[in-house]
């Protein structure tokens, strides 16, 4: 008992003396299990039946789309909306979405500050691959896996939702003030154009 109390007191003293930037490492297997539960509950709350990639990204095709199919090596342009599982939007390529968020009073400033009036909104353009691809030279595994899996099953003007476990998103570091460490994130994907190769 005394040893446990000593450990707790020592930890509190170290926290009080530090700068508040304490990083708690979580067992990756336990985090993946927790993320899987969060994702399953999120999809169930929305009434979606999802597919799962080999890496653990969940996805659902919301609208098949009536445009051209997306094939291997096509050049695809698509819009996106990035969300937390509480549906707070943290990023988008769609100006109308950003403008609507900026003008809502009860949304925390950490979200609205991303969507300034001078922000340049632009969709992604990629050379599509079933096995993954890079964005500006960076490989973002969860996003790439989700796009690769969902675009294979839809056409231009379709809509998909991908949900990524934290390890395939921003991991143990998070992203600034908006995305905490070990956070599941989701993206709505909207392919708008394809150049056939």
- Percent in helix: 25-40%
- Which ranges are low-confidence, i.e. pLDDT below 50, for 5 or more consecutive residues? 1-20
- Assign the CATH class: Alpha Beta
Shape: globular
Instruction: Give the termini distance in whole angstroms.
Output: 69 Å
Query: Domains counted in the coordinates: how many?
Result: 1
Q: What's the number of extended β-strand segments?
A: 7
Question: Which architecture does the CATH hierarchy give at level 2?
Answer: Roll
Biggest sheet: strands, sense, closure?
7 strands, antiparallel
Number of helices: 5
CATH topology: Chitinase A, domain 3
| Mean of residue pLDDT values | 84
Strand content bin:
15-25%
Order of helices and strands: HHEEEEHHEHEE
Briefly note the structural class of the backbone: alpha+beta
Radius of gyration: 20 Å
Characteristics of this structure?
197 residues, seven-stranded antiparallel beta sheet, 7 strands, globular, alpha+beta, disordered N terminus, 5 helices, Chitinase A, domain 3
Please provide a written account of the structure.
This protein is of the alpha+beta class. It has a single domain, classed as Chitinase A, domain 3. The chain has 5 helices and 7 strands. It has helices spanning 2-17, 28-46, 95-102, 109-112, 141-151, and strands at 51-52, 58-63, 75-84, 89-92, 124-127, 159-164, 185-195. Strands 1, 2, 3, 4, 5, 6 and 7 form a 7-stranded antiparallel β-sheet that branches. Strand 1 and strand 2 form a beta hairpin. The protein is globular, with a radius of gyration of 20 Å. The chain starts with a helix and ends with a strand. 26% of the residues are buried. The model is unreliable at 1-20 (pLDDT under 50).
């Amino acid at each position: 008992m005394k040893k446990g109390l000593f450990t707790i007191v020592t930890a509190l003293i170290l926290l009080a003396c530090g700068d508040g930037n304490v990083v708690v490492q979580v067992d990756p297997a336990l985090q993946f299990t927790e993320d899987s539960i969060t994702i399953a509950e999120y999809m169930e709350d929305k009434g979606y039946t999802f597919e799962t990639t080999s890496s653990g990204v969940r996805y659902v095709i919301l609208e098949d789309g009536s445009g051209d199919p997306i094939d291997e090596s096509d050049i695809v342009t698509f819009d996106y909306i990035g969300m937390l599982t509480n549906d707070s939007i943290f990023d988008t390529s769609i100006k109308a979405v950003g403008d609507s968020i900026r003008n809502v009073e009860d949304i925390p400033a950490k979200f609205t500050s991303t969507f300034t009036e001078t922000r340049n909104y632009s969709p992604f353009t990629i050379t599509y691959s079933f096995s993954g691809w890079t964005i500006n030279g960076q490989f973002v595994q969860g996003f790439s896996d989700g796009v690769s899996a969902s675009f294979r099953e839809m056409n231009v003007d379709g809509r998909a939702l991908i949900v990524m476990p934290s390890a395939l998103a921003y991991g143990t570091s998070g992203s600034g003030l908006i995305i905490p460490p070990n956070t599941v994130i989701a993206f709505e994907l909207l392919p708008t154009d394809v150049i056939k190769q």
